[in-house]
Amino acid sequence: xxxxxxxxxxNSNSFFKVVAHLAQxxxxxxxxxxxxxxxxxxxxSQNPMDELEDLLIKTGFQIRSLTIEPRGVEMPLSYxxxxxxxxxxxxxxxxxxxxxxxxxxxxxxxxxxSRLAEDNVEYYDDYFDGIFGHVIRPN
Length: 139
What we know:
This protein has a single domain, classed as Vaccinia Virus protein VP39 (Rossmann fold, 3-Layer(aba) Sandwich), CATH 3.40.50.150. Helices cover 34% and strands 32% of the residues. The termini are close together. It has helices at residues 14-23, 29-32, 48-58, 80-87, 97-110; strands spanning 3-13, 62-76, 114-116, 122-137. Strands 1, 2, 3 and 4 form a four-stranded antiparallel sheet that branches.
């Protein structure tokens, strides 16, 4: 039946860029092989707005509002090993947490997702594109 629906979803984010990079390594492939099951279907899309708009229209929705906005937060790089282990949907064995954390830090630096601030603390740029929408479905 009819109704309206307001939503927010993450389009792409730096977290999954790091995870995708780690999944290519021999060391972590087995542990995070199915990471794609837990990320946005638009993570690597070249045109997520058009894809989402097509999907909504094909499923019977009328779009009232649909925008994509960059968002993010900087966190001290030292928080990242724990942050990634806590937010990763696949379990990293406890005896590998330290090694995984070091790989996370190395990958963040390799992908240029960190910066050294004036306070001499290295920060991780945890950014994402958020899609905000309001759609209706007629009766």
